[in-house]
Amino acid sequence: MRYIFKFPDIGEGLEEGTINQWYVKKGQEVEVGDPLCNMETDKVATDIPSPKAGVIVALFGKEGETINVGDPLVEIELEGEAGAETAEEQTKVEPIDEGEGAGVVGTLEVAGNDAYLPASDEGNSETEIKQTKPERKSLATPVARAYAKELGIDINQVKGSGPAGRVMKKDILEFSQNKTSPAVSSPAKQQEVQKQLVDVEPLSQIRKTIAKNMIESKHNAAHMTIFDETEISELVALRARFKDRFAERGTKLSYMPFILKAVALALKKFRSLNAQMDIANNQMLYKNYYNIGIAVDTEYGLVVPVIRDVDKLSIFELAEKVNELAVKARDRGLTMEDMSDGTFTITNYGAIGGMFGVPIINYPQTGILGIGRLLKKPVVKNDEIVVGSVLPLSLSVDHRIVDGGDTARFVNQVMEYLSDPATLIME
């Protein structure tokens, strides 16, 4: 018996995915759980395991092709089951009971009658019919046609002087020399020139998701952003003191663990920034856990893995988590669990460059903190001008949920923690 395995929804309302790599080929035997292919989804690249044991009969889709959830992925000849059916036959019958193995990666269904679409409906519109009408062809001598082709001239644009308007070689020459009538390149040449001017690449799943999420955030949240700076010389000295000790234990110590801890403690004092508005049920959701996402820049796009229960982790544990997720993000090893259930986000654009920005809220979260580039600047301490280490901060919030007063007080609290890092362990 043959079984068609459809591309399942592997989490959070997935709609489509791109086939990165096939691990199997036609005629290959597979067991339950064997990886069939690697799919790039909205957020991660992940392997799709086989829900059945058997022999691969057919693969649907090529590497680099985008398919929708519910589209056929592979056809498997099941072991020890009679009554083989082809993929074409299976689409003509009612869905069958798929058994216990079907739930390996999601709800699976046998292809129904709507599994395949017509190849095309091109040529049906009146406009298309008009556009496909052949253009008038000029009368011309073979010599004139060859000469026009050599000069890249559309001979149909040339007025002929020969009998019955026939285009002669001299007409081509005059046309090419007439500056008021520039030569018209052939469609093939125009297309080649266009290819040289523009590099065309298909949109990746991650890039499409970034675009969709940014628009959703701007449409659904009332953005407000405030900017400030905090002097963190004590934190700089503390990091310098401990970074070698962390390195001996196999972990790089950056400023991010301190910022994470400061944000988590500040969120405990200002719960409106760790909340979500549920308009459908006319209620607010104030979250008593602190899962903070960190925006990570990768060669294939921006991803936001989440560190869970930040308030309960030590600086060393946070440093380990930051390094672990950064490596997984850049190696495309993040899972759906790594990306889900964040309550607040931090984006460190200063690591690349830039002092201030206007971060876009990771909707439906309420706030996102942007970290700018750390600078040496003159500051006033004890009525004296000294060199200080100044960290720029940009906080965007959903103004529907957070008032301006709490927004400013939250930033002040984060600044206090960072300027006097001893307070991070004293509270």
User: What would you report as the Rg, rounded to the nearest angstrom?
Assistant: 31 Å
Oligomer: single chain
Major β-sheet profile: 8 strands, mixed
The proportion of residues forming helix, as a percent range, comes to: 25-40%
Label the overall shape. extended
Number of helices: 12
Overall average pLDDT: 82
- Give the amount of beta strand, in percent: 15-25%
* Poorly predicted parts: 83-134, 179-184
- Termini separation comes to 65 Å
Q: Secondary-structure element order, as H and E?
A: EEEEEEEEHHHHHHEHHEEEEEHHEEEEHH
Category from helices, strands and their pairing: alpha+beta
Word description of this protein:
The structure is a single chain. This protein is an alpha+beta fold. It is 30% helix and 24% strand. The strands form four sheets. Strands 9, 12, 13, 14, 15, 16, 17 and 18 form an eight-stranded mixed beta sheet that branches. Helix 3 (142-151) packs parallel to helix 4 and helix 8 (256-269) packs across helix 11. It is extended.
Topology (SSEs and partners):
Blueprint: E1 2-6, E2 16-22, E3 29-30, E4 35-40, E5 45-49, E6 54-59, E7 66-68, E8 72-78, H1 87-90, H2 126-131, H3 142-151, H4 169-177, H5 187-197, H6 205-220, E9 223-231, H7 233-248, H8 256-269, E10 275-278, E11 283-286, E12 292-298, E13 301-303, E14 306-307, H9 315-330, H10 336-339, E15 344-347, E16 367-371, E17 375-381, E18 384-398, H11 404-419, H12 423-426
Helix pairs in contact: 3-4, 8-9, 8-11
Keywords:
alpha+beta; 8-stranded mixed β-sheet; 4-stranded antiparallel β-sheet
